[in-house]
Specification:
By secondary structure, the protein is an alpha+beta fold. It has one domain (about 5-100). The protein has helices at about 5-15, 15-20, 70-75; strands at about 25-30, 40-45, 50-55, 65-70, 85-90, 95-100. The protein has a 4-stranded antiparallel sheet with strand order 1-2-3-4. A two-stranded antiparallel ribbon has the order 5-6. Residues about 95-103 have low confidence and may be disordered.
Length: about 100
């Protein structure tokens, strides 16, 4: 699977899906993880509010699905347990990342 850098990822996720009446879907995997070998994330229009909705669908059956109202919340909330996870955040307008072991 091709990897993109964080700056490219942020550029993609900052696309105004509401104005363009579009959605973003990206498949991803966690290296060396069978459980998360085919996961999805994206951004779409929330049909209830008409605003952007950021989301993760970690497993095919939908049992590990998470929705967020903002890009900051989307990239900084830990969603995967018992894995080493890089969580991204924006500090003073610049993307930063933090890596830690989740329990």
């Amino acid at each position: 699977m091709k990897k993109i850098d964080f700056y490219t990822f942020i550029e993609i996720m900052e696309c105004d899906v509401v104005q363009k009446n579009a959605c973003i879907e990206i498949s991803f995997c966690l290296d060396a993880s069978l459980e998360y070998s085919f996961s999805w994330l994206g951004k779409t229009i929330n049909p209830e509010t008409g605003r952007a909705l950021f989301w993760y669908r970690l497993v095919a059956d939908g049992s590990q699905s998470y929705d967020f109202d903002s890009l900051q919340e989307f990239i900084s909330t830990p969603i995967i347990v018992n894995k080493c996870l890089e969580v991204f955040t924006i500090i003073n307008g610049k993307p930063q990342h933090i890596t830690w072991q989740l329990n």
